[in-house]
Design a protein that fits this description.
mainly alpha; 78% helix
């Protein structure tokens, strides 16, 4: 199993946990239940911790992507120094897709921050995976 599949599986599991916990908390609130998961500090804490982890991943993915886009290597027989042929189209494509998804997401779900974590994770994962594919196409598989 490659790094992309592994990380995608981990983050989709986290996203599923966030969705279930958020649903259970909001279900109790919407139905005026006397006992809700919102009253349990462990569930509230894990939900905020997972959301914070996804925000951290977003920052790290964007930093890694920026680093890959500015990386150069010595020109060799089989490689270009800048890797621009792999970087240019991908970076523009990711930006375009992110903007389209952002406006669609806003119109469907509104400004609710509970759903914002879904958008953040999916776009961060897209940026990270794209960076890995750029690296693989340009420099080959890491040793």
């Amino acid at each position: 199993m490659g790094q992309i599949k592994f990380l995608s599986g981990i983050f989709m599991t986290s996203l599923f946990a966030i969705a279930i916990i958020t649903f259970a908390i909001n279900f109790g609130i919407d139905n005026d239940s006397s006992v809700t998961l919102d009253n349990d500090p462990d569930f509230s804490e894990i939900n905020s911790d997972l959301t914070g982890d996804i925000q951290t991943f977003n920052i790290n993915a964007n930093t890694s992507s920026d680093t890959i886009m500015s990386t150069t290597q010595e020109t060799g027989d089989q490689s270009a120094s800048s890797g621009g042929q792999f970087k240019v189209g991908t970076a523009t494509g990711i930006t375009t897709v992110t903007r389209v998804i952002r406006i669609g997401f806003k119109k469907i779900f509104g400004e609710d921050t509970n759903f914002g974590v879904v958008f953040t994770l999916l776009t961060s994962l897209l940026v990270f995976i794209s960076g890995l594919y750029i690296w693989k196409a340009w420099k080959g598989n890491p040793d």
